[in-house]
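Review this chain:
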Amino acid sequence: MPPVVHMRNLNRIYSHGGSDVVALDGIDLDIMPGEFVSLMGPSGSGKSTLLHIIAGIDRPTSGTFEVMGEDISEYSETQLSLWRNEHIGFVFQSFNLIPVLTAYENVEMPLLLTSLSRSERAEHVRTALGIVGLGDRMDHYPRQLSGGQEQRVAIARALVVDPDLILADEPTGDLDGKSAHEIMGILKLLNRNFNKTIVMVTHDPKAAEFGTVTRHLDKGTLVPLETA
């Protein structure tokens, strides 16, 4: 079975103040279908850069790179947006919910770019909110929810398009211990019961333990693999 993510000698270099800053240096990485990868490393090690390249939010400077067998590095911004909406579910540390929209409306947002009918969108939204345990909070606004519940809504929004790949950038970083454990339980459920491939950036060793594979980045370089 081919990898979901395939990288060979991938580099990302930024120009800053007249000098080059190497964010990623010669990354070789394969992520297989159904893996839950915990990506760890100190601040500035390149974790979020790697995640953003996988999502098509950033572009590599050089190297070979495919996601789901597609070389997205040459896609236009319009192509990337459509591709991302179909294949990628992204979960942010800060939730990124729209305050004036209900939980239902926030989760529905990615579906507005699809050809689904209103009733089909409703079915998808209710299913996604049900999976994260918020079927009874659909009409609540973000301000009426706890931080843990807001992150559940964000996960439902990432899940609603039935993506091939879920990317999570410090999903427990703004949560207390109990809420963080619950969120990690949901991600583990999505991986184990729904066979979702997940790549998660985290500083938290307890969160990383929920993954099936742990990868470490240090100064833009991927260090040897550890398997759970």
